[in-house]
Design a protein that fits this description.
The protein is mostly helical. It is built from five helices and no strands. Helix 1 packs across helix 2 and helix 3 runs antiparallel to helix 4.
C-alpha cells in the first residue's frame, strides 16, 4: 500500500510538472503557476525558474522582483541553464 501511494504521488507530481510546462509555453501563466509551484517547492529546477520568471514579469501572479530572484537563484544553484544565464 505504501509503495502504491508513493508511486501515485510521483505520477501526480510528473503530471503536474508536464501540464504546468505546457501551460507556461502556451502563456496560460495562472494555470502554469498553480501546477508548477508545488514542484518548485519540491526542488524541481525548471519549475523554480518558471516560477521566478512569472514573478519577475507578473505573469499569472502579482509582480514581485524580490520573490522572483529567490526562485531564479534556487534554480541557478542547481544548474538550470536559463536561471544561470539570468
Amino acid at each position: 500500500l505504501w509503495l502504491s501511494l508513493l508511486l501515485t504521488s510521483c505520477a501526480i507530481s510528473q503530471f503536474n510538472f508536464t501540464e504546468g510546462i505546457k501551460c507556461f509555453h502556451n502563456q496560460n501563466y495562472r494555470q502554469a503557476f498553480i501546477r508548477l509551484k508545488p514542484e518548485a517547492d519540491r526542488g524541481q529546477p525548471d519549475a523554480q525558474y518558471a516560477i521566478g520568471y512569472m514573478y519577475y514579469y507578473g505573469k499569472g501572479v502579482v509582480e514581485n522582483k524580490k520573490e522572483a530572484w529567490v526562485w531564479i537563484n534556487r534554480a541557478a544553484a542547481q544548474g538550470q541553464a536559463d536561471a544561470v544565464e539570468a
